[in-house]
Amino acid sequence: MQASLLTKNRHEELLSNELHALLDSIGTTKKIRKDTFLFQEGMEAHDIYLVKSGLVQIGKLGEDGKELTLRICKNDDVVGELTLFSDNPIYLLNAKVLKSGEVLAINKDKLEHELMQNSALTFEFMKWVSNQMRKFQYKIRDLLLNGKKGALYSTLIRLSNSYGIEQNNGVLIDMALTNQELAAFCAATRESANRMLVDLRKQDVISMNKSGKIFIKDMQFLRDEIGCEHCPIEICNID
Known about the structure:
Mean pLDDT: 85
Shape: elongated
Number of strands: 10
Radius of gyration: 18 Å
Helix content: 40-55%
Strand content: 25-35%
Distance between the termini: 16 Å
C-alpha cells in the first residue's frame, strides 16, 4: 500500500483522455455545495456527473432510516452512471456533497447518442460501469457475510487503499470521518461504530489523531478478521 502503488492503481481506474474529452465537450460545469444533493433516490435521471473537485457520497437510505454509504467520489469519478441506456430512468441512490467543489453535468441523452457513434468509447464506459458494480457487490457481500464489525474492518481497509499514506509503523488514512460517517458504511448506528472503534484502539489495532484521522497499526489483524481475499486495489477501494 505504498503511495506510489496507490497512485498507479488510481491512474489505471481513470477514464481515458478520449472519453474524458467527450464528456468535457457535452458537459456543463456546475458548482456544488456541502450538505446539498446532486440527486436523490427516486428522482428522474436526466444527467450523469463527473466530479471535478470536492467530495460526493453515494449511498442508500434503508426502510429503517439507516444510511448505507457505498462510495465516496472525488476528482474524475463519475456518478449517476447506472441510469444510462435505461427506459424511464430514475436515480437508484443518493448523491450527497461532503465537500464543496465542481462537477461536470452531462446530459444522459446526449451522452448515449455520442457513445452509440463510437463503439470503442462505449466499450470503455460499460467496462468502467461493470467495475463499479463489482465494487458494490463486494461491499454488500462484506456486510452480509461478516456483519457490521466485518463491514467496518473492510471499510478501513478500503479507505486505506483510497486515501492511505504508508508510514514506518502503519498506514494513515488521510481523510477525517466522523463516527456517524463511518457508521453509514456499515449500516450501523453511530454508537455501535464508536464501540467498535474503541475496541480496536484498546487492542492497539488503530489510533486516531486530533483531526479525526485514523492510523492503522495492524492491517493484518483487520484482514484476518474478515478472511480478506486480497482483492485488487482497483476493486478494494472506497471510490
